[in-house]
Design brief:
alpha+beta; five-stranded mixed sheet; 5 strands
Length: about 170
């Protein structure tokens, strides 16, 4: 009875590796193609990246803030903006996202997060680079004109809420 345990019990026919089967193009668990990498980056952008808001230290101006995009204790992007709560106006002054996360929807998600954090704020932007200009156009954030903007942030000081105006 030795050797019977190795015999096939079904009547299925097995094809040989050299027969009519098409040859494989890669390892069974090899690297993913471009579509798989892109999908994986998009999932990363929506699931694993946290938004942390911080005030920019130093003499940057009144209301200057930064939204940090963080993935596992590493900053993968930043959005710099000025906000005036007295006028309900916000100006986006800088967007920097890690190159490997471009085209993942992370910029759109970050700007949507800003809008939800500051409801009722009218946003505009001073950015003119093609990549940021396209993102801002998709998000319907207009470009700031040269003279327009909040008088409080251009004057160099935010109004003191405890002191009466005038």
């Amino acid at each position: 009875m030795s050797g019977e345990h190795a015999r096939p019990t079904s009547t299925l026919t097995f094809r040989s590796a050299h027969g009519s089967e098409a040859p494989r193009r890669g390892a069974r668990h090899g690297r993913r193609g471009a579509l798989g990498r892109r999908l994986r980056r998009r999932i990363l952008a929506y699931r694993d990246i946290e938004f942390l808001s911080t005030h920019v230290p130093g003499d940057t101006g009144p209301g200057e803030e930064c939204l940090l995009l963080v993935h596992v204790r590493k900053v993968v992007g930043q959005i710099h903006y000025r906000i005036c709560t007295a006028c309900d106006e916000g100006v986006i002054t800088g967007i920097a996202i890690d190159e490997r996360l471009h085209s993942t929807g992370l910029g759109t998600r970050a700007l949507s997060h800003l809008r939800s954090r500051h409801p009722g704020t009218a946003w505009c932007s001073t950015l003119t680079l093609r990549t940021t200009r396209d993102l801002l156009r998709r998000m319907r954030i207009p470009a700031a004109s040269a003279g327009a903007g909040c008088a409080h942030t251009h004057a160099g000081a935010m109004p003191d809420p405890l002191r009466p105006a005038g």
